[in-house]
Predict the structure.
Amino acid sequence: MADQEPNEIVAAAAHAKAAKERAAANQEKTTWPIAAIGLGVGIGSAALAAAVMFAGRKKD
């Protein structure tokens, strides 16, 4: 049995397993750091609000 080539079913199962592992590896790479993005948006919004308030103040 060890000398025989794998049949179509075994080869298809191995191919499917390899594809599933590649998909899982790609999913791990593309996770977005949501907390960091939220912090960046919050800081950016605060900076924009401060700039608008500074520009709209009266200059005595």
